[in-house]
């Protein structure tokens, strides 16, 4: 019998960031990517004060919520996840990280946000939603991977509608999406009266095209969109991360006395 704090035979325990965040993941299931750390960092940088209640939509393994709580000092994060098995692993991961009471797993469908969540209860919503449209490409035969990678239960419009319901006026939504969907996402945000206020493009290397974007939008507060400096993932040399990313991934090294 496997204890709750140990990975089962079909699970791995994986770490990310500088604060020792570890999450349980199914070997054949969807795995978190660097995008989780990029979103958590962006949300913490652009978002409101640390004591502001945060909601994560489509939390998956809980990695973004755990990073927000442990690495970026958010006081309380509610992590909404659709899939029961994924949610159950997230509950165990929260306990493994000692974040009970700070990260609150919630099982449910973001499309049912009005029934699940009190209107205006959060000051900040974050989401790393499925990137591919439902009709794009070949659907994975694994239900967990399919739901996590394609918009089978979570469209851009659904994310915006759930966020708008959950956010108090003046509250903020932070998202990460692939660069080719930039115009579509900005349009959906504006249509939901979630006004884009900060945008950051993510590039694998300095001279490479953008692959991702991070956007921060504010409910019912029209204002200028500020484009942040690009976020570069890899340095110019062979291998390794650029300094900004390295600082987010590795604990500071002690200087010998």
| C-alpha geometry | globular
Q: Assembly state here? A: single chain
Element-level helix/strand string? EEHEHEHEHEHHEHEEEEH
Stretches where pLDDT is under 50 for at least 5 consecutive residues are 252-257
The CATH H-level homologous superfamily:
Vaccinia Virus protein VP39
**Secondary structure: number of strands:** 11
- CATH topology annotation: Rossmann fold
Number of domains: 1
Q: How far from one another are the termini?
A: 47 Å
CATH top-level class: Alpha Beta
Number of helices: 8
The overall pLDDT, averaged over residues, is: 89
Radius of gyration: 18 Å
Structural class, by secondary structure, is: alpha/beta
CATH A-level architecture: 3-Layer(aba) Sandwich
Percent helix range: 25-40%
- Our estimate of the beta-strand percent is 25-35%
Largest sheet: 9 strands, mixed
Can you walk me through this structure?
- This protein is α/β, with parallel strands linked by helices.
- The protein has one domain (11-249): Vaccinia Virus protein VP39 (Rossmann fold), CATH 3.40.50.
- It is 28% helix and 26% strand.
- The chain has eight helices and eleven strands.
- Strands 3, 4, 5, 6, 7, 8, 9, 10 and 11 form a nine-stranded mixed β-sheet that branches.
- Strand 3 (54-57), helix 2 (63-70) and strand 4 (77-81) form a beta-alpha-beta unit.
- Helix 1 (34-46) packs across helix 2.
- The protein is globular and about 50 Å long.
- The N and C termini lie far apart (47 Å).
- The model is unreliable at 252-257 (pLDDT under 50).
